[in-house]
Amino acid sequence: MSDVATSAAIESQLEAHRAELTGYCYRMLGSAFEAEDAVQDTFLRAWRGFDRFEGRSALRSWLYRIATNVCLTMLGSAQRRVRPMDLGPAGSGRATDPGEPRPEETWVGPVPDSRVLPESADPADVVAGRESIRLAFVAALQHLPPRQRAVLILRDVLAWSAQEVADLLETSVPSVNSALQRARATLAAANLTATDVYRPMDEEQTALLARYVRAFEAYDLDALTKLLHEDATLSMPPLPLWLRGHDDIMAWMSGTGCGCRGSRLVPVVANGMPAFGQYRPSSTGSGHDPWSLVVLELSDGRIAALNHFLDTARLFPLFGLPDRLG
Description:
Layout lengths: L2 H13 L2 H12 L2 H22 L5 H18 L36 H4 L6 H9 L3 H7 L4 H12 L4 H8 L3 H17 L13 H16 L2 H7 E9 L2 E6 L1 H9 L9 E7 L2 E9 L6 E12 L2 E8 L2 H7 L8
Parallel strand pairs: 1-6
Antiparallel strand pairs: 1-2, 3-4, 4-5, 5-6
Helix pairs in contact: 2-3, 2-4, 3-4, 8-10, 9-10, 11-12
């Protein structure tokens, strides 16, 4: 086989694992961009060492070993990523200063489902995959020490056996079980709120999203209020301000946030949840410019959280959203 054909064969084998490895690295790192960098580093290391691999173990397990080492190295010098709700109490909807933007590496960021979830014909696998990349779950993972984080993801999300994880981390099964027990206890203490993942065939969810789009694009705050849980939250990374409850959210939207009036929404899917690219009316008077990626958290037929990610320069290309609407 020629060198070109050999290279193409290796590349094909590696690419078959890209989505699941990106999903693993995203859960580890909390950033879609860092996850893609980690996978590229993993593939580069695998490419260089492929002639020494020689099938001594399953290719998938070998790639996960490399990816885990890459992530652990990256986490060794990184601060823990958070959501605005982790930084302090809710603010006031009548605030005129949302605070100085924090650096990107402060935040748990959104990710397109298509980048991190392998295609599956089994609806149960699709739902399970979406649940494991919910923003709240990924944020909770960041509270775990890196090796505990790896153990919990491999055991509880990817369903690896304790022996497989022990082999990957070059440790013992009792050590893996102990780390898993501690990680589960930490997540249990976090009291993660159950939210509904995106179900495009669910008529009730589809109707809720349609009502949200109509209310937001018309900027009908009364109609929008009826769609929210009483203790719903609104956040706007990279701004640290976050709000809780009807009164503060509506006060913000009718006051400082009123520039969103006249916006248009383009649907996407992020973190297993319905999301939209939001475009505000352009200051030029023509068309609409990117403003935020809105990720909705739904629960019991209402909206539990509105997450507005404002870094559109990086997020809109990631999600395949147009750079403006005419």
